[in-house]
Every structure is written in C-alpha cells, then in structure tokens.
C-alpha cells in the first residue's frame, strides 16, 4: 500500500528535475550591514512590539556556531520537555545581535559569556530576547557590541510540548501485545525542523559539533547520533546519558530518541557497530535489516574508499513516521514498513523496499551527511544521488533484486563506471565535513582521471592507445558541467527523433511534451530555446557493438558503419530521454520483436514498451501501433519486460473501469484473460522461485482476481476461508497474501474479520496488505468507516491516512467518496499535516489525478481556486490540473482506436 507513496516520492527525486517543495529555496540574500541602529523603522516588529533587527529569511553570517552543548529532558507522561543549551559561536564581524532559528519554543533565559572578550568574562550576562515568529527567528540583543574574531558562549534555557505531528521533537505511540499503549519521543528535522527542538542556526551551511545529554526514566533508553559515554544518576531516580561529541555536521541531521525499544547488533568489517531497534514485540522482525545494513555498510566503505566516520550506526523503526525514512547521522529513522521484515507476512516486494531504503539512507551518510549541499536548492542532488546509489549498491549486494535507473545513471554510462566512481570519491574527499554545490560535483567528475589517462593542467587526456568509446569524449575535453546543466536547469526531458535513410541516421531533438500535440497552438512556444546535451547510444541489427554520440545540437546526421535493417537507440535504457522512430522505424522494431525478441536486449525491450506508450500520450504514435508492439509479450522471456507491458495494459483497464466504459472494460478483460491465460494458469499459490518469478506471480494473480477470473477467485476464497477458520494462524504464501485478503474483503464477514485482524497484527507489512484489501470493498459505508478510523488515528494511524485515501480513490466505488471527503475536510486534514508535506501532496494528487472528464476537471479547478484565494498554493495543484487535462485528451484521441483494436484482437 505504501508502494503508491513510494512511487510518488521516488518520482520526485528520480526525475531529478522537480525540486521538492521547500518554500525557502529562493532566499539567498543576507544583508551584511548592521542597519538596525541606523534605521529601525524598516525592520519587522517582534512579538513584544519592538523592532526585530533582521528582516531576511536567511540568517546573517556574522556569527557562526562552532559547538552546541545540548541538554534535553523529555517527560513522557506530561508530554513536554525542558532543555538547555550552550552554543559556542565565532563572531566574524562586529555585531549588536545574534539571530537564531526557534519555532514554538518558550525561551526562559538567555545569557552570554566569553573567555576571549574581557567585557563578557563574568558568566551570565543576561540578554534581551526578541522573537519574530513569521521567520521562525529570535534575536539575542547584547548590551555591548560583540567583537570580530572572538569566541562567545550563548546559554539558553527553553521548554516546549512534545509536538503532535511528525516534525521537531514529537511523540509517537505503539500498542504492546498485551494491549498497553506506550509513548516514545523522537526527532525528525529535515529540512527546517531542528528549530522546533532547540534554538539553532538551522541552515545546512552552519556545520558544528554537538555534545548531547538526555535525561530519562530508568524504564527507557536514550539514543542519539553518537555512542553513549556515560550515564549519571540524577534526583528522583532519573538517569542522564552523555553522548560523545559529534563530527562537524548540519543541524537537520541531529537526532535523539527516548524509548523502550529492543535491538539486535552486529559489527561491520571496519569495526562499526550496527544496531537495529524496534518496539519490543517487533524485535523478531529486525534481523533482515541487520544483515542488509551490515552488507551495505561494507559495500559503501569500500566503494567510496572513505570510512564511515562514526563508531556506531543505529537504524530505528518508529511507529509514527511521516515519510519513508530519514538519514540522521548515526541514528537513521524509518517508518516500520521501511525497516522491519516479517518472514511470515512480508512479500518479496516488501523485502526489495526495505533493502532499497536502507541502501538509500546509508548512501546519505556520505552523500548528504559528510558532504552537504550548501542550500536546499541542490537537495535534488542529495536525493538523486542516494537514489542512484541504491541501484549501484543493491545490484552488488543483492544481485537477485536488480531494478531500474535515472539521470545520474546516464552520466555514469557516459563517463564509464570507473571514471564516475573516481569523480565521486574525489568530490567526497575534497568536501568532507563541508558543503558543496552542484557544480562542485560536476567539476570533480570532469577532472577524474584514470590510470590510462595522462594529465595536464588539471585535465585528463586519453592515451591514444585507449579504444574505449567513452574516452573519445575526453579527447574533445568535454566538461561534465556543460552537459549536466542542460539537464538540471531545463524542465522536462528530451525526445530524440530518429530516421534511418540507408546508411544515414538523422537525429533531431525536441522537448518531450506529454499531452501536448504537435498541432496544438502552444506546442511551438513550449519548444523554444530548449536544447540538451544528450549522450546518445545505439545498436544495430548488424553487430552487438554500442555506438556513442553526444548530441549537442538540434539536428545531426550520423553515418552507420554498415548497412542495417534496424537501429535501436538508448542502449539498455541508460539514457534519460525518449526515442521516436520515424518512417518505418517502429514497424521494423515491432517486426524484430515478433520474429525473435531476443535479438534486442531485455532492457531495450522494456525501453521500447515504455517509449511507445509515452509517445501515444504525446500524440506521436497511434495507440494501435503501441498495442501491436505488446503482441510479442506472449513469448517474452524476460519477466521485467513482461511486467512492464502488463502494467500498461492493466492501467488501461483501470481507466476504463473507473470511467464505467463497459464495452471496452469487458473486451479488455476478455483480451487480457485470453492472452495471458496460459501464463496465469502456470502460476502456483506459493512463495517458490526467484525474486522475479515471485513478482510475476503476485502481479499475474492480482490481475486475474481483479478481472474476476473464476479459478483465481476460487483459490483465493478457499485460502481465505482456511485462514479465517484457523483464527488467522494459517500461513498464507506472502506473495499472494494481498490477493487473498482482497478477495476475502468482498464479503461483509470477511471484511469485518480483516478489520479485526488489522487491529491485532504486529506486522506493518501485513497491516498494509489488510488495509489495501479493506479499501477495495464495493460498499461505500465500509469505505466511509475506514476514512473515519483514519481520521481518528487510533486503529488506523494518521501516518497511514494518505495511502488509505489514495487506495480508496483507486477503487471505482470509492473515487468520488475520497475526493468529496478531501474537499469537505480540508481544514481537518491541515490539522494533521502541513500543507507542503509529502502526505498532503499524496492526498491531493492521489484523489484527483485519475479524473478524466471535463466536469471533473472543472470541479477540481474550482476547489483549487478556492484554496488559492485562501492563500494556499502548491505546485501539485498545477501538476494535477495538467494531468487531468492530459487524461481527457488521451481518451478523446485514443478511445476509438482502443475499441477497434480490441474488436480485431479478441
Ligand atoms: N532525506 C530524505 C527525506 C526528506 C527529504 C525529508 C526532503 C525532508 C525533505 C530521505 O533520505 C528520503 O529520501 N526518504 C524517502 C525514502 C527513500 C527510499 C526514497 C522517503 O521518506 O520516502
Ligand atoms: Zn533521501
């Protein structure tokens, strides 16, 4: 169920073009003059009515933090915390005030002391504190100006309630097997929530060392970024843990947790202690994560050739967590379903997810934590890189789990893996414990030399003996930055149009426009001034060689080395572009697929299926041609390719079903069942086989039951009854568990029983499957009940509300209900999630982006407009409206061809 969640989030990063919506991105300027005394009138007003001496969102750079001594004492009964800190700062330029971030904290006292400035040598010079909540800043006014190049120590006492949501220092609860509800306290800071837990310089550039102390009751433990040095007994039986001082790091990576969790531990090859923590009853689900994180840590330490710099690494499963995971240095936090693996109820896809998330967050320990972006506008690189490293590391540590790729993968393919890796290592070493920009990475990649290259003036030149294709680019001294800025500064992706004329290969690049056709009036304007540097690769019918060419102009012509019957661009789909074959190009490729699909590589076949359907959406290829291309799928031997084709066909079925276009729905159902019957009938209801065999089984049986294929429904019903009779004790094969539950949920008795089990289950993986099954009910009153439970946040946790609404909106009987709910309960939703949070974006797009009629578009538009007049704006509004318009257009254009194609094909 959270899969949907995952896809959306991954898309955000993987496309690498869309920035996560962090509204503070564009605030770059920071006035460096102390204008306060000269003209207080132009400054904002603090809460006490006095002028606040700073008007920028970004902090001034006159004062920088060096070290934080932070003491925190959360009370898990009264649900609040008292805390104090001492920040050692360096004054770089004379100033009358220190500006810090602080959000929702009650500041009780602030004092200043200095060993270096004699005027402040006496301890405890009390400071005036002004607060400007609109910028989440406080100003500490000093009686006498602080002097440049001297160090000062700021001491602040403060307190607050543990937050209700998922940010800052917040509370989370879980139920034990015995039915008791227990509370823990946990932090989550990225991007700007450290300021909710302690006053700080909450920008990634202000790196400092942190010494953390946590007071707790003896029934709890405390965890933080670093290992514990000692525990001291305090009054009233309380204990106080002191943690080692951290390395230099940004505030958003600080973390601490007070809980009563249990753990398993192991040691990586380098001696780093790795532990997995979960609530005590879930301890038995932690073992896979330990195995995976030890393997992955070993992999990264070798790959980056840089030791993980802390003595320990904890991975903790948090019962209430808004996103999937967070890479806090040394104390990575996860949603339970992103870390825990229960052999009885977690499927092979669940295992892949856990492995990917661990791989992703561990990659951040270097890329993000050791070297950090200067500012949030480069966050896509952090995330894009961690996503890229998932691919590299999982393919090595768990080759059987292999999966797909993105923009950085194209760059790796262009430079060669070795050179790319060298560049990354150079970058990580050069900027360790510091901050860097996009361009710094590109320069490191440009200048990474191999043994076989010789260097001159900082550039690499290829040895003439080297014949590798990629190196010829370096002879031309290609700057990675020139290539990459065409990908990071332009919105969207390119389309390469190719036409073969004898031995000439004519190439043309355009901006790929999904949903905008060439004869639309806006097409021309949307194309203007777009130009990418595209590393084009191609193979031909006459040899297995991979040919390479860097396309830097709008058009280009290449000469094929020999006569060939077909050409396939974007070898192995490593490039981040779509290819359209003009003239007979597509027909030739379709013919190859039908004659002997193995003449093309499996990843090329996936790429062809993908590009063909994308081109249909762009109005460049007719739907029947794309569907003709899928005909060969009955002979497809590569499971990933088969799954990709099935995905598209299934998505058409869902669209038709949701729109209630019954003739096409029926015919498509007949076609799918007739066409894939042999392979469906071959599937066993077990967990046997390779990872890919298992994924195919899950997908095919899910489709078959969804299409009401009698043998499938019969078997699922039988397993469900046996499971109910065994009072939920029978072990159903994990790969078909979701299918069995979904079929079982169609009767009232089954649905009620599942809801009961949902409340009792200790496995997040199982709960996700049950919740999905419950959301497929055809009874509206049951769907309403689920939403009510999600809003109440007890049986169904608030963290699962977004995926619940998403799932209900996918159900033809629930789509209108979910959407009406969002409209009518908008303010209630905002009480639970921030407007720009992941869940809110998933709720908005999840309950609207499948609409495909003009009336629906109008309704959604009106609702968004009403929100905008109240001051709420999100980029996702625009994306949703464009998506619905595209859906409408797709149907207008393709419905008749789909109808006809089916009539011919069944
Ligand atoms: N650092 C991110 C989470 C994040 C990003 C928080 C931006 C706030 C702002 C973390 O590494 C991440 O990417 N988490 C993903 C999981 C991942 C495997 C895609 C998530 O939470 O879904
Ligand atoms: Zn990430």
Automatic annotation (TrEMBL):
Cofactor: Zn(2+)
Natural source organism: Sus scrofa
Residues at the active site: 361 (proton acceptor)
Aminopeptidase N-like N-terminal domain location: 65-253
Recorded topology in the membrane: Single-pass type II membrane protein
Co-factor binding comment: Binds 1 zinc ion per subunit.
Residue ranges annotated for the Peptidase M1 membrane alanine aminopeptidase domain, each copy included: 288-402, 404-448
Pfam annotation, one family: ERAP1_C
Protein name in the entry: Aminopeptidase
